[in-house]
């Protein structure tokens, strides 16, 4: 069978990569605390969970497009549009058929079915049918008929590709994507199309540029809500809404409607009302919403859709014509199989077979099965049927499945082999025998916490008031990335004339940082004064206050000895800087200015970047012409509920991945026993990068070496010392000086520079 992702190995490698990244977040000088944190990351099981196996029962089939044409529901003209991209004879799913019938009847509706269930056909077929009827009647002039609204450009781009294939042989219907990526100039738009669609010619009915869409409005307009806002207020774009063809608007499609909740939902609802006020004052546009996760209560879903679009979306139980929320209809799984059972070893052998279908038919025949379709035979294998029924209530981890079906003798390897075989075979209706997905969940950190008592440290990755093991108070800790010394972060809690130190997550509370076990005052000296900081009122923080903290009750005291609150001893010394705020300007231990003092916090971007990079490396390379492209044709699509977050994350991921790739090239160019100067190393890096296709074909050798030299210099001057190749001990950098050279005497005589002649 073809090369696919191994879910077990992939999950293990992603988990291990994430754990290694989390371990590197803090540079801890305290070896016991570092060991406790590393052990907790590895054994807690709270940072990653899975893989979960999710099985979706097959959808029930209904009539085909041709059947609906024969019944008079759809027009005969629509058959001229149908092709391999939109087959006329292929049976639709029942929910697709129901959505089409309701839309053709003039109803607004919500298609609330799962991911990959073909929600697009629920709105695209009736829209194309309406346009085909207009063409047949001779009334299909310029002007927008349907607005397809997407929450992000990636979804709009996918829909454009599909429309391009469907309408390639039917030039009468025009369409265009109007987003921030759309060029104004037709020539530039054509160049961008050629760049993104190598070897493909544009079709005449796809309007590529903004200028073309303003001159001749497309029948189907695809955009996102941010661009729709601009279109409504920019004078140059008003022809879409105010021109002589503006009265032709009929359809409104809102994809992924579930993202428009809360305040954003209210804003989008007002935006859609403004659109309808411009193009359809007398009646609301016929609206079709799609979502896989909009909700389980159809009455509430209908109310949400009506409020969002102002269309009449109803849910009247008992009256099918007025039930406008269309759910999926799944085929029932038989209670038991007709033959078998196969065990995990059998499935493991089938997964590595050259022709698993032939072997399945042979095995099934030996059990009395009569039939010629391998997928149909496997669908009735008793152990697979048992697995489907066990997963009918929801996703489970592989271990949960094994524990829940003890008599089946499943192993993780056997389960994954079973899923691989069943997912690769089709039944008599052309559907996979097992429609399965794996889920691996990972979470960002919320901090690291530890007690300070004699029996500790006991580290936790979630907030606790007291240690679950020794019941001492827990403190959130961080460290200076330069010297590794430990800081406690929290807030002061002053009550009854005493002060306690508590971790806090309350918004708006200014954090207080305490240096744990500071050096004596004599061993530290403040750095030179910064005049700019003094002018701005941000003078050196070297002024500090030494106190002591009780590890048993977290009470702060001005003196050592017994705790004034609980009489425990000894207390731990801490140092608090006067005027300390949430941002630390100077480490209270090593004195470095603007230090990187952090807590155990990844942030969503960093965690997602690590996970996506690890997953991307596990994706098999493409087997078509894309395999010659950068990345060997691998593709990875990521989603975010926030457009702004997605925009920031895209550049962050590109920057971090490029840095990793450059470091790998530099490491590959180094020679173990032969030192290289910068020019030679850059030449090696440029050569290797060229072999991997990281340069443009027309780039000259000089340009490639200049680029590689920049990469090398960026690494040599890297500010993230702990993550650089030199900081990780992968590369040694030294100045190559003449052995006869000596430091000039005037330099040696300068005060404070005796370190120049150190060993």
- Radius of gyration, Cα only, in angstroms? 33 Å
How far apart are the first and last residues' alpha carbons, in Å?
A: 62 Å
Structurally, the number of domains stands at: 4
Highest-level CATH class of the largest domain: Alpha Beta
Main beta sheet strand tally, sense and closure = 8 strands, parallel
Overall shape: it is: globular
Commentary on this structure:
The protein has 759 residues and is of the alpha/beta class. The protein has 4 domains: 26-47 and 446-524 and 539-601, no CATH class; 61-327, Rossmann fold, CATH 3.40.50.300; 336-435, no CATH class; 604-716, no CATH class. 37% of the residues lie in helices and 14% in strands. It has 25 helices and 23 strands. An 8-stranded parallel sheet has the order 7-6-8-5-9-10-4-11. A hairpin with a 5-residue loop joins β16 and β17 (486-495). α14 (344-351) packs across α19. Mean pLDDT is 87; it is low at 522-542 and 753-759.
